[in-house]
From TrEMBL:
Domain Acyl-CoA dehydrogenase/oxidase N-terminal: 6-119
Key words, A-Z: FAD, Flavoprotein, Oxidoreductase
UniProt xrefs under Pfam families: Acyl-CoA_dh_1, Acyl-CoA_dh_M, Acyl-CoA_dh_N
Cofactor: FAD
Domain Acyl-CoA oxidase/dehydrogenase middle: 125-221
Residues in Acyl-CoA dehydrogenase/oxidase C-terminal domain copies: 234-388
Gene Ontology MF annotations: acyl-CoA dehydrogenase activity; flavin adenine dinucleotide binding
Homology family: Belongs to the acyl-CoA dehydrogenase family.
Listed name of the protein: Acyl-CoA dehydrogenase
InterPro entries named among the record's database cross-references: Acyl-CoA_DH_CS (IPR006089), Acyl-CoA_Oxase/DH_mid-dom (IPR006091), Acyl-CoA_Oxase/DH_mid-dom_sf (IPR046373), AcylCo_DH-like_C (IPR036250), AcylCo_DH/oxidase_C (IPR009075), AcylCoA_DH/ox_N (IPR013786), AcylCoA_DH/ox_N_sf (IPR037069), AcylCoA_DH/oxidase_NM_dom_sf (IPR009100)
Length: 391
């Protein structure tokens, strides 16, 4: 059975120390100002966080295995301090680096991965469109080959890490023709930042994740070289679906960090907040809520790291993609929904103070809802789980 090693726990403590010193003192102000701390990304790179899954030949630190579990530990610990910074790492590696690492040519890897792994640059993942969310197969963005170049036209929505000052490239799905059966042929194409005709729209005004960089993208005859095709032509949709399987485990890790923080905040408040002459935690109405948070944290963590372990085992050839896919959906749907419940419970324990932005539970409450939506909604996860049982 899987377990976290002493090295894993040492790594967890290292990331926690970093998050407590570099993020925690500023998170509330950054959230208020909707400020993305681009100068923090190279520091995360120096810590090795963006290079965890990248081989040494491309500037990363992947080596003896277990890399995905290490990534989930980092995401959980960042997410425990601030959810926006957790998703910045998750998207930077899972959605920015992984498609290039998994499907890129040797030349593409050598060109893009060293800077991405070092935190000197960031990459985005352009799948969602204004009219194509859960129904990602309804992609309308198109790309045609013309004189050795892909000419891209269309729009993408809700794309993380796509408009930072260090964003270097966004990989997008686009229709590049039709299959023999008359269905859309969807391919993945890398569009570098600064390409004429590629416009990053103004940042969204969001409910939460205010520190995270999120934009809509538009493409008007944006031309990139033919060799910017990522993977095989017509395989883009399949590639991105496989990428999302990994992302669901990572979102579960982010959710686990959220639940853990709510457990810590609510426990401390219940021990120190006095009412009717005693701590409010002395009342079962409160203490049972704390117990529920503890159950959520333990369950989410177990589901997350079982799925991460299966992913690492699959990479080593000892487990199947089917097992990972099912475990990822189970972990994601439970952990994300538990995170939303955990923030609601913690806010209730804080009472009126929980409604005030000076307390972190308010920020986590706002941040949590998207966990049930991103990387496949709860409804999509239930559909995938049911399918695994032949339904």
């Amino acid at each position: 059975m899987f377990e976290l090693s002493a090295d894993h726990e040492d790594f967890r403590r290292t990331v926690r120390d970093f998050a407590e010193s570099e993020i925690a003192p500023h998170a509330a102000q950054w959230d208020k100002e909707h400020h993305f701390p681009a100068d923090l990304i190279p520091k995360m790179g120096e810590l090795g966080l963006f290079g965890l899954v990248v081989p040494e030949e491309f500037g990363g630190h992947a080596g003896d295995g277990g890399e995905f579990t290490y990534l989930c530990l980092a995401i959980e610990e960042l997410g425990r301090v601030d959810q926006s910074m957790g998703i910045t790492l998750q998207a930077g590696v899972g959605l920015g680096i992984n498609p290039i690492l998994t499907y890129g040519t040797q030349e593409q890897k050598e060109k893009w991965l060293p800077d991405l792994a070092a935190g000197r640059a960031m990459a985005g993942f352009g799948l969602t469109e204004p009219d194509a969310g859960s129904d990602a197969g309804a992609t309308k963005t198109r790309a045609r080959l013309e004189d050795g170049q892909w000419v891209v036209n269309g729009a993408k929505a809700f794309i993380t890490n796509s408009g930072t000052s260090i964003t270097s490239v966004v990989t997008v799905t686009a229709r590049t023709g039709e299959t023999a059966e008359g269905k859309p042929e969807i391919s993945a194409i890398m569009v570098p930042n600064g390409t004429p005709g590629f416009t990053v729209e103004p940042a969204y005004d969001k409910l939460g994740w205010n520190i995270s960089d999120t934009h809509g993208l538009t493409f008007e005859d944006a031309r990139v070289p033919e060799e910017n095709l990522l993977g095989e032509r017509g395989h883009g949709f399949k590639q991105f679906l496989a990428t999302l399987d990994d992302g669901r485990i990572a979102i579960s890790a982010l959710s686990t960090g959220c639940i853990q923080r709510m457990l810590e905040e609510a426990s401390e408040y219940a021990r120190t907040r006095m009412a009717f002459g005693r701590p409010i935690g002395a009342n079962q109405g409160v203490s049972f809520k704390i117990a529920d948070l503890a159950v959520m944290a333990e369950t989410a963590r177990l589901l997350t790291y079982k799925a991460a372990w299966l992913k690492d085992e699959m990479h080593a050839g000892r487990r199947s993609h089917t097992e990972v896919k099912k475990a990822a959906s189970i972990a994601k749907v439970y952990s994300s929904e538990a995170a939303v419940s955990a923030t609601r419970i913690a806010t209730q324990i804080f009472g009126g103070n929980g409604f005030m932005e000076e307390y972190p539970v308010a920020r986590f409450y706002r941040d949590s809802k998207i966990l049930e939506i991103g990387e496949g909604t709860s409804e999509v996860q239930r559909m995938l789980i049911a399918r695994s049982y032949g339904l």
